[in-house]
Amino acid sequence: PAVGSAPGGSASGGSKAPNTSLFVPLTVKPQGPSADGDVGAELTRPLDKNEVKKILDQFYKRKEIQKLGADYGLDARLFHQAFISFRNYILQSHSLDVDIHIILNDICFSAGKSHVDDLFPFFLRHAKQIFPVLECKDDLRKISDLRIPPNWYPEARAIQRKVIFHSGPTNSGKTYHAIQKYLSAKSGVYCGPLKLLAHEIFEKSNAEGVPCDLVTGEERVLVEPNGKQAAHVACTVEMCSVTTPYEVAVIDEIQMIKDPARGWAWTRALLGLCAEEVHLCGEAAAIDLVTELLYTTGEEVEVRNYTRLTPISVLDHALESLDNLRPGDCIVCFSKNDIYSVSRQIEIRGLESAVIYGSLPPGTKLAQAKKFNDPDDPCKILVATDAIGMGLNLSIRRIIFYSLIKPSINEKGEKELEPITTSQALQIAGRAGRFSSKYKEGEVTTMNREDLCLLKEILNKPVDPIKAAGLHPTAEQIEMFAYHLPDTTLSNLIDIFVDFSQVDGQYFVCNLDDFKFSAELIQHIPLSLRVRYVFCTAPINKKQPFVCSSLLQFARQYSRNEPLTFAWLRRYIKWPLHPPNNIKDLMDLEAVHDVLDLYLWLSYRFIDMFPDASLVRDLQKELDGIIQEGVHNITKLIKISEAQRLLNLENVSADSRSRLPGTLKSQAKRMRGTKALGYRAAEPPSSSAEEKSLASRLVQQGLLTADMLKQLEKEWLTQRTGHGRDRTEPGTSSKGSRRKKKEPDSD
To answer: What Enzyme Commission number(s) does the record list for this chain (predicted)?
Structure first.
């Protein structure tokens, strides 16, 4: 069987039956009264609806008719849906076309002259009206034929390219050697997986006197004073040009060709870049697939193997307690909650930590990396997600996996909780003891003793060879589909396209769930198909409600032909924004940063409608500074958020309010003993500690501030008074009211 075939695809190209559950029936309205009257009735006689219903039921039950329908692509499901629509059309129309009226009349009244089977041509005509895909299946198969992708890039096929694969683990110097070739060439393109990496090469290139432009989805920087394009460009892989000729091209992290969502961009770069030399950097697991793909283009692959420049060892003991942290340690978590929890625990121990996770703006990540790397900064611990696996130069002595379970999205778009892969573990572990850092030897371990054996097992497994490369339908292909299916929604078009598509065995169609999510979000907004397609390819985080509603709002403004000006955008995001007071505020600011990214991304596709990119970029830099301030004080924000949760009076019943200090005391004890929130078990209290009020102890621990205490005092008084009034009916004492509390309500 074909490896990685798309649904509906095959290596041989043999067409399989389509998934008809994707065919959404169109509505065909019954015919109203005709200006010419009922011509069929005048030529024959009016039809008896009861007789017609009986004839139609006979037609439906005929096995020969069902078999004939199947020959025309109507499986049982489509046949049933088409029949229901056909029957409603016949029975609800005021007048029918003459030909069908005469046939029905003959079947009803002229015994033997016509047979119920004679309705089939009319039924089939109706079925093709409600399921237009039946009429053009062969055309759709041709349009969605994704076999032989190398032929999509005639410019690259017109030259004989030299391909060099720099293979090795992290910190082996493979990318360094490829970049040296890039810098010494007359012209070159660097294609990276992250904006941060594109920025790094952009800055490195210009610092070494090689003029280099920057091109990412959200940013274009031309360094030549006359506005001409420089001979070198650093870009994110999705943005590379497959028509511009270069002397040298570098494609970084080539193993991402297998990525379920983004793999298509590496496939496009690998097959399409017009460069005399193409340098690939990545894991050995991609060598066989790359060699196989380029065999079909007649290009040979030269493999250069690299070994790690500095040693790395897996320790025989877990960290077990944060008391055992040392300078240069990096704790890797796979959820934001763990990041917050661990940061807070570290702060309780009187240590400072830097924090890096995926949704932080690039500027904030760089600022946190700089703080951690700075030998003069007291911050010596890093708490991070796997976002550190690429794009940041960090001086790490030891990687500590807080957990080995990572949420992921599978090929079907479903969320899974599974141990990290060998490839992921090697990528993260490889950040310890880098050649360019002050720690020349790296160490790796886990937080929990029970995870250590699993980590060793994962790291010792061979990395599975990559079997298939990603593909993605183009805007032109979707437009041709829409030409044949003009009344089908974009989301449904994509489903049908993937179902009809045929791919060679070394390819798969990427997961298009994010695209479909956006398509469904803006479906009701009137846009041309090409504009709709562009909006749907905009990279958004669908977990962020504000970002999703912004895509909708931007599309709505666009459809009204109302330019999204800087003044409008400031009002929309409620600028000016202030430093965050708690974690929720910080997350809200991150979402606003994503919205500004979305604006900038769209501004390069629709410059007239998103005219103020430079002003928005300045605003985004200002926002990045505000977020940096929040992340710098993250433990303070976590502390306040915890205190707010701890002291949420809404959940405290009126009866217990009078004993509130005791409730708080038990909650605080529970929190201190909760591993999930990361508190150390409290020391046995001394006699003097027992005498202290709980409030003063909470203030001492940093869970309460003096201002919060004053505010709490006011709230307690207000709420107690309010509840007292609520519970006391006229003429009844509150004491009596409390006595009645346990009795069932009279009503």
So the answer is: 3.6.4.13
